[in-house]
């Protein structure tokens, strides 16, 4: 009786596969920066081709924001706004980046622009209320939270309505 004996080649292949699999398991996940850099490079190339590409600026700004690179994100959102002064998402994202940098006045101004463009956007009133509160404008913050709560109610978003009402009560107690 002959027993099955694997060839040297199949043994070496099996060892190589096991080694590759163990390397794959041990390899660290790429960082957000490593993942984003090729995309940022592609967007940079697109902007060299077309410096008026609003979407490229917007997406590059979003990537910078995800990497917590607030200043480059703000620069990109500002360029979007220069190219399209009614771009609500660019104002919203720029305001969020400004909040991250504790530029509450700048965030307030940008959220006010979003409200001018999209007055039914409840979350914007909520976010502007935070900026106003940080600026010491409690009356304005309370007014924004009341509007946000009402818009959430109208839109059927009871979860965010309740969260906003909770914040409203907390702001009213601090007054």
What would you note in describing this structure?
79% of the residues lie in helices and 0% in strands. The chain contains 9 helices and no strands. Helix 3 packs antiparallel against helix 4 (70-83). The longest helix is centred in the first third of the chain and has 19 residues, at 8-26. The N and C termini lie far apart (93 Å).
In sequence order, what are the helices and strands, one letter per element? HHHHHHHHH
* Averaged pLDDT: 85
Amino- and carboxy-terminal Cα gap: 93 Å
* Shape, per Cα inertia axes: elongated
Q: Enumerate the spans where pLDDT stays under 50 for 5 or more consecutive residues.
A: 1-27
Q: Number of DSSP helices?
A: 9
As a percent range, the share of strand residues is under 5%
The biggest sheet amounts to: none
Q: What is the radius of gyration? A: 25 Å
Structural class: mainly alpha
Helix amount, in percent?
over 70%
Strands, count:
0
